[in-house]
Write a structure and sequence with these properties.
- This protein is 39% helix and 9% strand.
- It is mainly alpha-helical.
- The chain has one domain (8-111): 2-Layer Sandwich (Zincin-like).
- The protein has a 3-stranded mixed beta sheet.
- Strand 2 and strand 3 (67-70) form a beta hairpin.
- It binds zinc ion.
- Zinc ion (ZN) binds next to helix 3.
Length: 129
């Protein structure tokens, strides 16, 4: 069974979930796109790399732009929706991690309600003046 169409209620539910998980992950809540139309409406440089192919995925993270696409139309049920939100936010909080066991474990912990301290880059800060 597919989730009901993307209406204002569902939009609000998703934004709330993104807000809650973002707080737990100590990240700035990303801009959220909920249809491939919204992806295509953005300037090309913001969605580079996954633009015309975004519709194929449950979700896409545009890390450097702090934008997340949740492909509501493709997502089959609420569990997958929740999972997709957390998956994309794990990308945001752990930008150095690629898919794999550790990544999946973090998704499971996120879904279980665990919080994470803010991400700090391990690279030395650039000189400032
Ligand atoms: Zn991913």
């Amino acid at each position: 069974m597919h989730i009901v169409k993307l209406d204002d209620d569902l939009r609000l539910v998703i934004l709330e979930k993104v807000g809650i998980y973002s707080a737990r992950f100590s990240i700035d809540a990303p801009t959220v796109l909920l249809s491939s139309r919204e992806v295509l409406a953005l300037p090309r440089e913001l969605t580079e790399g996954r633009r015309t192919t975004a519709y194929k995925y449950y979700g896409v993270s545009y890390l450097t732009q702090n934008i997340v696409f949740i492909n509501v139309r493709k997502i089959p049920d609420e569990k997958t929706l929740e999972n997709t939100i957390v998956h994309e936010l794990v990308h945001m909080r752990f930008p150095y991690l690629s898919h794999g066991r550790r990544f999946n474990k973090l998704v499971r912990r996120g879904l279980a309600g665990k919080g994470f301290a803010a991400y700090r880059s391990r690279k030395p800060a650039a000189p400032a003046n």
